[in-house]
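hey
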């Protein structure tokens, strides 16, 4: 078939044990691809690796050869049948997903050092895939045969037999039932299509001694046996993926039910949804064409199926970023362009430095079960929300916090996924912004009037919506765990009413935007209400409002969020150091009320003078934001009690810490320079008896300023700035600026010392 002359394939079947015939799977796939009456790939373009040829070196060399042979117009078919694994390093907790080439596990025992020499890491495969110039690539992953269970010669209504896998290599690995995780680890987020044989916590089964269930159905699809009509004489990625997705689960379910005794098992393929091109995999055989009465096969186009534009799978990705902003689109749009210029505006704003930004959804080649429309079937929402759960667990695992901006039904996907997350992944979600989302469904009367009975599942009285709302209320009965939740309705939305957007959420979460259902999320400029809602929700942090290095700010916020999620559930068990970490993180996230409640109720806070100082600091900062006598006096009382206890214990580090704060409060709150100098000298004397560290140097600088020695104050502030991190710089600047401007009764931005402080602590 000359039309597929630039089609290439790498087929791998790794022999692992006698019970699983992965080689038969690989050989049968290669046979179809090279059959001129079927797929019609040029034989020289198809590489088959089985047995000893499918070792680590052989697979890597085959990838290198494929990289050399292919170009941007090539299509690439990858297939792997064999075992996979997950290894967790005890020292670091790092998880490594890997393939098991020939030679891996042949010995009864193997050390991790030996395994590292022969396994093939998912990251290595991902690098090879990324090196391929072609964007037209599909990877079929028939992996994680963890039990060797077979359905030998199963026919509906018959019995199945099982085989027990022989004892394999003994190694410290998790039981590998994570084909979806392995699939995500090789996904380079450039629009390639990946289809894995089963989902998280499922296993891949054999149908007979020759083929697995997954490969058997894939073979049928490549032969066109799934076809019932002819819209196209060629078999393409999407129809094959859809067929595997729909055909395998009921087959396995029926086979399991027919066993004696019946088995409670399932196998559902994993499919990623972000595809670049719905390209041809094979041609429909002439015999099948004739059977289905193809009237004019020559008239069908053989060019690649093109969408309106190339799929955009990443807006921005930067090394070291630990914050991710996900855009989830509705069913009428595309992940890359639903939100118009919003991603571009955000990327140009320095306050969003340190945030990676990615669209999340599916390409124009994925057709919802009800058709490409504003709405979709509930099955589509469930499938994509499950894909989101898997992505957060594997693809996005490096991020400490994740913010979600979702439009229309994308908001239902986000809510369903958040409910289905395991707690460790739900805790990563920091911000949720739902735009024009029918969270309460569509009123039955309006649904019938506009769409008859087509979308009854979207009814406000339907099973999906009522369950979603009940589950949400049960999960979050009082407070949401997110830093911020915003829900927005559009003034002229022709599909979703404000009631549907707002009713499930409190008033403080609700925002009204101008525009229609689709136009509301496509701003013309940065003054647009939708853009300003997203930006303000993500960037308003009082703790860092004056600091100019926004990337460092956002990285720090991500770390604080991770600390809170880890320590808050075990608050009662924390020691003094753990409690301090939690309080500092809560303060950094502007969750001061939560921090204060803990400090006022936790027994450790009454025992430790530095924790009493934290309480005093909380009131001091409250006073500086909105000066009230109560906050100023409360801060003074806490620091005074803490200083008295520190003097009794001769704890010089605590003495200078509390004394310098009392010097500050004496000046700023009490306007008493005599007391200010007394406490400043006390702080300086105690600091001289303490070891050198950041806070000692900052204390000396502040004390010298209060005592009138500005030159020594400047020198020590300079040293402190070199040692300090973001949070420390902001804290030091807050005290220094407020103290200096009160002393001088001037806050001129041209003042030399004010400029010095700004350059050293806010730049």
């Amino acid at each position: 078939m000359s039309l597929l002359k630039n089609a290439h394939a790498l087929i791998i079947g790794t022999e692992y044990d006698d019970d699983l015939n992965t080689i038969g799977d690989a050989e049968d796939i290669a046979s179809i691809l090279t059959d001129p009456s079927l797929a019609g790939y040029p034989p020289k373009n198809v590489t088959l690796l089985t047995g000893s040829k499918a070792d680590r070196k052989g697979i890597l060399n085959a990838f290198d050869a494929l990289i050399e042979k292919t170009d941007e117009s090539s299509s690439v078919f990858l297939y792997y049948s064999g075992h996979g694994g997950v290894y967790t390093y005890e020292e670091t907790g790092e998880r490594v997903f890997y393939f098991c080439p020939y030679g891996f596990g042949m010995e009864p025992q193997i050390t991790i050092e030996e395994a590292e020499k022969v396994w093939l890491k998912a990251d290595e495969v991902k690098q090879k895939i990324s090196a391929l110039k072609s964007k037209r690539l599909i990877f079929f992953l028939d992996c994680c045969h963890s039990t060797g269970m077979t359905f030998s010669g199963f026919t509906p209504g018959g019995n199945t037999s099982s085989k027990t896998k022989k004892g394999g290599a003994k190694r410290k690995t998790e039981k590998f039932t994570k084909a979806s995780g392995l699939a995500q680890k090789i996904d380079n987020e450039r629009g390639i299509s990946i289809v894995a044989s089963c989902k998280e916590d499922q296993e891949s089964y054999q149908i007979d001694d020759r083929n697995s269930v997954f490969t058997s159905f894939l073979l049928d699809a490549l032969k066109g046996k799934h076809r019932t009509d002819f819209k196209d004489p060629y078999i393409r990625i999407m129809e094959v993926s859809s067929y595997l997705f729909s055909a395998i689960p009921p087959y396995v379910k029926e086979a399991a039910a027919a066993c004696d005794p019946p088995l409670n098992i399932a196998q559902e393929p994993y499919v990623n949804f972000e595809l670049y091109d719905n390209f041809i995999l094979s041609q429909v055989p002439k015999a099948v064409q004739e059977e289905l009465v193809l009237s004019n096969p020559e008239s069908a186009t053989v060019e690649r199926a093109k969408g309106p534009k190339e799929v955009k799978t990443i807006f921005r990705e930067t090394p070291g970023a630990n914050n991710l902003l996900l855009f989830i689109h509705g069913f009428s749009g595309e992940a890359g362009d639903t939100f118009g210029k919003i991603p571009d505006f955000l990327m140009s704003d320095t306050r969003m430095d340190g945030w990676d930004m990615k669209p999340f959804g599916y390409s124009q080649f994925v057709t919802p079960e009800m058709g490409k429309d504003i709405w979709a079937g509930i099955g589509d929402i469930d499938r994509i929300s499950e894909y989101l759960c898997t992505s957060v667990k594997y693809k996005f695992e490096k991020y400490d916090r994740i913010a979600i901006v979702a439009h229309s039904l994308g908001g239902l996907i986000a809510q369903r996924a958040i409910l289905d997350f395991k707690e460790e992944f739900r805790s990563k979600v920091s911000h949720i912004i739902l735009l024009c989302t029918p969270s309460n469904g569509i009123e039955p009367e309006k649904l019938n009037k506009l769409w008859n009975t087509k979308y009854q599942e979207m009814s406000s009285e339907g099973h999906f919506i009522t369950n979603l709302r009940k589950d949400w209320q049960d999960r979050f009965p009082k407070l949401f765990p997110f830093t911020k939740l915003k829900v927005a309705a559009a003034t002229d939305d022709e599909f979703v009413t404000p009631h549907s957007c707002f009713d499930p959420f409190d008033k403080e979460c609700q925002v009204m935007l101008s525009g229609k259902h689709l136009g509301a999320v496509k701003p013309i400029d940065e003054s647009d209400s939708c853009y300003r809602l997203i930006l303000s929700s993500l960037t308003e942090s009082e703790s860092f409002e004056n600091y100019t290095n926004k990337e460092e700010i956002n990285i720090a916020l991500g770390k604080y969020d991770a600390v809170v999620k880890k320590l808050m559930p075990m608050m009662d068990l924390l020691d003094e150091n753990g409690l301090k970490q939690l309080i500092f993180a809560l303060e950094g996230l502007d969750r001061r009320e939560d921090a204060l409640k803990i400090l006022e109720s936790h027994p450790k806070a009454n025992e430790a003078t530095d924790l009493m100082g934290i309480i005093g600091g909380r009131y001091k900062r409250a006073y500086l934001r909105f000066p009230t006598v109560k906050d100023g006096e409360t801060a003074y009382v806490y620091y005074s009690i803490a200083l008295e206890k520190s003097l009794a214990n001769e704890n010089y580090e605590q003495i200078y810490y509390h004394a310098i704060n009392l010097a500050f409060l004496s000046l700023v709150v009490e306007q008493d320079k005599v007391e200010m100098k007394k406490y400043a000298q006390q702080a300086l004397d105690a600091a001289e008896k303490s070891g050198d560290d950041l806070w000692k140097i900052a204390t000396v600088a502040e004390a010298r300023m209060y005592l009138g020695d500005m030159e020594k104050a400047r020198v020590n502030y300079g040293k402190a700035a070199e040692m300090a991190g973001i949070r420390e710089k902001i804290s030091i600047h807050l005290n220094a600026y407020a103290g200096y401007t009160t002393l001088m009764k001037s806050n001129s931005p041209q003042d030399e010392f004010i400029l010095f402080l700004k350059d050293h602590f806010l730049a």
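The first strand starts at residue 7 and ends at 13. The chain has a mean pLDDT of 79.
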